[in-house]
């Protein structure tokens, strides 16, 4: 049962999530050049959708921490930022790399995170206008290539447990910081369960 059947829109949540992740990454950039992104992606309509987007954005940032240590991915991101000519084609190449092993909740999270990091690179390169293009590209890729899969796999509501498992699986040593991240994930799972329970009770 996807979010669509629960009165929540998988498309709306996905678009709002992309915008949320990009804006969250850009908070770390000290620049007044960042353009507003609101007109380019829809906003959520209910409190439940807002909570889901907020929690998913936190989980995506944690999953994305793995990508930060992947030199090949970082080189791809830098390649898009520095590439002359058609950056859209370069972006698609990065997206294809993310999904070369197929679509999964973890890979979707990685793509959204990569979009956020790419937006940061563009602002640092004094190309803030490109941030809006990145949002547009990511939303377009999401609609054309990922939305159908998300609906077929039960909607965003089903992503919580898989993203949590993906993160726990990647933790090789439990440092103090790791404990904190696990706690955040447990909170995310709890929220996801509560949302699921409430939606089930409504029917």
UniProtKB/TrEMBL annotation:
GO molecular function, one term: BH domain binding
Classification via Gene3D superfamilies: Blc2-like (1.10.437.10)
Keywords: Apoptosis, Membrane, Transmembrane, Transmembrane helix
Annotated Bcl-2 Bcl-2 homology region 1-3 domain residues: 60-156
Transmembrane stretches, start-end: 179-199
Any one cellular-component term (Gene Ontology): mitochondrial outer membrane
GO biological process terms held by the UniProt record: extrinsic apoptotic signaling pathway in absence of ligand; intrinsic apoptotic signaling pathway in response to DNA damage; mitochondrial fusion; regulation of apoptotic process; release of cytochrome c from mitochondria
UniProt xrefs under PROSITE patterns: BCL2_FAMILY (PS50062)
Signal peptide boundaries: none
InterPro entries: Bcl-2-like_sf, Bcl-2_BH1-3, Bcl-2_fam, Bcl2-like
Family: Belongs to the Bcl-2 family.
Name of the protein described by the UniProt record: Apoptosis regulator BAX-like
The species this protein was found in: Sphaeramia orbicularis (orbiculate cardinalfish)
Gene: LOC115423722
């Amino acid at each position: 049962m996807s979010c669509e059947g629960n009165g929540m829109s998988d498309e709306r949540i996905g678009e709002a999530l992309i915008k949320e992740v990009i804006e969250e990454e850009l908070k770390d950039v000290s620049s007044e050049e960042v353009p507003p992104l609101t007109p380019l992606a829809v906003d959520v309509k209910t409190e439940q959708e807002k909570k889901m987007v907020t929690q998913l954005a936190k989980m995506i940032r944690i999953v994305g921490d793995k990508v930060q240590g992947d030199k090949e991915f970082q080189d791809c991101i830098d390649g898009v930022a520095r590439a002359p000519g058609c950056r859209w084609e370069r972006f698609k190449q990065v997206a294809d790399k993310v999904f070369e092993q197929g679509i999964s909740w973890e890979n979707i999270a990685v793509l959204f995170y990569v979009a956020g990091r790419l937006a940061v690179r563009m602002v640092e390169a004094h190309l803030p206008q490109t941030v809006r293009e990145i949002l547009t590209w990511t939303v377009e890729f999401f609609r054309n290539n990922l939305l159908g899969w998300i609906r077929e796999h039960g909607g965003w509501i089903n992503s919580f447990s898989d993203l949590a498992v993906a993160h726990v699986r990647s933790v090789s040593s439990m440092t103090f910081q790791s404990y904190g991240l696990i706690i955040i994930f447990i909170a995310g799972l709890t929220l996801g369960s509560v949302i699921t329970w409430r939606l089930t009770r409504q029917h």
